[in-house]
Amino acid sequence: MDDYDDWRRQIRLLLQVQPELQIICELSDGAEAVQKAEELKPDLILLDIGLPKLNGIEAARQIRQLSPNSKIIFLSQDNSLDVVQEALNTGGLAYVHKPQAGSELLPAVKAVLRGERFVSSGLKGHKLTSSPVANPLRYHEVLFYSDDAIFLESFTRCIAAALKAGNGAIVNVTKSHQDSLIQRLKAEGVDVDRAIQRGTFIALDASETFSTIMVNGLPDPVRFLSFTNGFIEAVAETTKVERPRTVICGEGVGLLWVEGKKDAAFRVEQLCNVLAETHDVDVLCAYPLSSFHGDEDGREFQSVCAEHSSVCSR
Q1: How far is CA 42 from each of CA 27, 68, 104, rounded to the nearest angstrom?
Q2: Structural domains in the chain?
């Protein structure tokens, strides 16, 4: 999707030489891109950033919800590292700088279709390498629970395993769930008081967390990552294993979903994917099954699942 006819023609000519690729649609604005993505569910989408009506980054966020299996490549004249990072934070797998498109677009397409990531060689300051690299393993799981007993059992098992192995744990839940989790951890033989004192276990109140990271009803990426990184680093410094992993268990996304703040929940999930790809963390999110009204085959349910590396429903 690009608003310049000549540029779209050049891209079409590049792609047409690959017999395994079939171009099914060309568009000139972001709003049309979202509509057609939902309708056609393409395997691959090329998006410019500076699209009329709806910019490429916002279009990508909507497309990720409406067609979660579509792989997105950003193709843009903008080489600002902040823009690159924000684009990839939406779930895009590649960012190709237009001046390098002639030599790098096809390698980017091939890398993305293999499930790898790609960033143009001209973007030297970006954290990703300039050539295709295997996408790091992402441990970002989701639990859809039918009652509180299952929620508490799953979180307790995850946190206890981490602490007993000498790793750290961060939990972000309601105050009532926090108290119940601590009781259950003690019943499992975990010395919670010592873990809190040492700093290997941090319990956060979900409502207070959101008051810190939200701006205009949505999580601010800078605030979220700064807030979360601080706790991850603090926990890692207190552990004694050679390469510590931190477990992060939270129900904040589920609380947002129940309140009808679904865009905010999706944004948090996307930011958690950034954490899972850039830190030694295992992330477990939780949603009450009742918030999906039993529609486990629905589009929204499947879109939530698509943001995670594994799914458990009990």
Answers
A1: 13, 10, 21
A2: 5-119 (3.40.50.2300), 140-313 (3.40.50.300)
